[in-house]
Amino acid sequence: MDFILQVLNALHAAKTQWYHFTAIVIAGMGFFTDAYDLFSISLITKLLGRIYYFDAVSEKPGTLPPRIAAVVNGVAFCRTLAGQLFFSWLGDKLGQERVYGLTLMLMVICSIASGLSFGKSPDGVMATLCFFKFWLSFHMLQ
């Protein structure tokens, strides 16, 4: 407890400098992009339902089946936890610069793969999309 009070006193006594604002902006942008990703998934599920599960005789233009919607929404939350834990650990082991390079390569590969999701059925396309979406966003908020 004494250590925490010493740290808080040191922070209180420190003068605010430019790198403090830089750290706040970087942390805020990471939080914003992850929150946007988690927020926008509900809009994306509606679009995916209309594209892959369209039924001309139905009154609704097309909705994802509940099991598919649960997987699409669940992938976003699971990858957030897993990515934070894994890449924080990996950053401690390999160093942040190497991990940034690794996450950049992962983002590029999975972005292309997400755009080219494949499958013979709508369920197959959704499975590959969820797989690549998981790995695309796995690194967020390290």
From TrEMBL:
It comes from Gossypium barbadense. Keywords: Membrane, Transmembrane, Transmembrane helix, Transport. One of its GO terms (cellular component) is membrane. GO terms for molecular function: transmembrane transporter activity. The chain crosses the membrane at residues 21-48, 68-87, 99-118. This is Major facilitator superfamily (MFS) profile domain-containing protein. It is found in: Membrane. It is a multi-pass membrane protein. Residues 23-142 form the Major facilitator superfamily (MFS) profile domain.
